[in-house]
Amino acid sequence: MEDEKQQKAEALLEDAERLVIDSIAETMDLYGVTPSIGRLYATMYFKHDPLTLDDMKNDLGMSKPSMSTAVRKLQDINIVKKVWRRGSRKDLFMAEKNFFQYFSHFFGDKWEREAKLNLTSINDAIEKLQEVLNIEEIDVDMKHRAEQDLQQLKEYRNYCHWLERLVDSVESGEIFEFLPIEDTDSNRDES
Amino acid sequence: MEDEKQQKAEALLEDAERLVIDSIAETMDLYGVTPSIGRLYATMYFKHDPLTLDDMKNDLGMSKPSMSTAVRKLQDINIVKKVWRRGSRKDLFMAEKNFFQYFSHFFGDKWEREAKLNLTSINDAIEKLQEVLNIEEIDVDMKHRAEQDLQQLKEYRNYCHWLERLVDSVESGEIFEFLPIEDTDSNRDES
DNA sequence: AAAAACGTTAAAAAATAATTTAACATAATT
DNA sequence: AATTATGTTAAATTATTTTTTAACGTTTTT
User: Of A16, A140, B16, B135, which shows the fewest CB atoms inside 10 Å?
Assistant: First the structure.
């Protein structure tokens, strides 16, 4: 009797975890991670103790080098941290479970890279176009093209600057004043 | 003499365009498109008249089926539109040059998919976990694990709801009240 | 009505990326 | 000091994705 309930509970719990693991793994591709790496993160998400490479190997049924590179990738995008526990000589890893932190790091890095890289080339290009327009007696079609390019690039530059300000507000947490984090569960005893 | 200036101007203009084309192509991978498709968009960005598939084929030196599928992908993520011009029986395409629109569509779709998919599984899982916790005389370790999972999932749900609100504010344009689009060029005659 | 133009789909080829096995380097244990 | 454990790198393999060539169905022109 007792045992029967235990088994039912365990089945339910594992169902619940598997459900979420599958959907995390499915959506993680949006974060530039391969399905396997996504699944590794999703699996780690439900571990309440740190994992070794061998644990991961067993959980996912993959080779240790794969786990080694996968976990490094996850560290790179700041959603897994190496932790230390006395007594274990193996490396231990723990999933970052705060998705807001994850979000900030991930898009912060992405957008910053995009803005920086493009601003450099945009500014160089704008300079060149202004040089073109300073040349006297230039062909009317070319002048027109240069003017159109210039106008477009200035708009693009505005976008890049906007992206930079977005990154700032995400990294400083300012954005959470505009869009506060609400606790959906808090009205649970009002029903 | 005249001609010399013309050639210099043309070289400068093409340098300017190439510079930006390369950096757009390089950063487009962040938007989930292949390098070739990124380069196609970047090339179209500097065209002030619509392009046919054959134009693209010539510009990029690729096959027509590649252009056909590439341009469809770009239409899918809303950064290229099919346009109509009387007289041409070929299909004509034009790049969307407003990056803000691009940004909104792209991340709107991404985040919405993520939130929707995960919320479904999170809610199902939460239900199952509550069922587990309702079982009497459950093993203490399992109870603990269920409680931890439940707590985590509720936080995750808050994140998904936050994402949904972010999508709303991006799609409604509300976010631009919080982070206004500034014209960097407007202070050009103050120097 | 036949031929040509156009875009797309299907199959094949080429190029990339992911994964594994094997080899290696370093640190810990015996 | 020798052996074992641990994680990483390198080479080889496998799988996936991208790209092309070939074939197809429509539409337009002749």
Answer: A140
Do the chains contact at B30 and A138, CB–CB below 8 Å? no
- The answer to whether the beta carbons of residues B50 and B83 sit under 8 Å apart is yes
Closest nucleotide to A63: CA versus each C1': C20
3-class secondary structure per residue, B103-167:
HHHHHHHHHHHHHHHHHHHHHHHHHHHHHHHHCCCCCHHHHHHHHHHHHHHHHHHHHHHHHHHHH
**8 Å CB contact of A19 and B137:** no
Which ipTM was obtained for this model?
0.90
Question: Which of B117 and B188 is assigned the larger pLDDT?
Answer: B117
Tokens 């027509």, residue? B64
Which amino acid belongs to residue B96? E
Domain boundaries, chain B: 2-97, 100-184
A169 touches chain B (CB under 8 A): yes
Query: Using an 8 Å Cβ cutoff, are B94 and A151 in contact?
Result: no
Q: What is the pTM of this model?
A: 0.90
The verdict on a CB contact (< 8 Å) between B122 and A183 is no
Given CB atoms, is A99 within the 8 Å cutoff of chain B? yes
What pLDDT band is residue B187 in, cutting at 50, 70 and 90?
low
Sequence-distant (≥ 6) Cβ neighbours of residue A191 within 8 angstroms: none
Q: For a pLDDT cut of 70, what percent of chain B falls above it?
A: 96
Check if CATH label 3.40.50.700 holds for domain A2-97: no
Are residues A184 and B157, on separate chains, in Cβ contact within 8 Å? yes
Residue B90 has φ and ψ, to the nearest 5°, of -80, 155
Q: Cα(B62)–Cα(B59) distance, rounded to whole angstroms?
A: 8
Chain D nucleotides near the protein (CB, 7 A): 5-10, 17-22, 28-29
Kindly give, in sequence order, each residue whose CB lies less than 8 Å from that of residue B44, ignoring residues fewer than 6 positions away: B51, B56, B74, B80, B93, B94, B95
Residue A3 CA, nucleotide C25 C1', distance (Å): 50
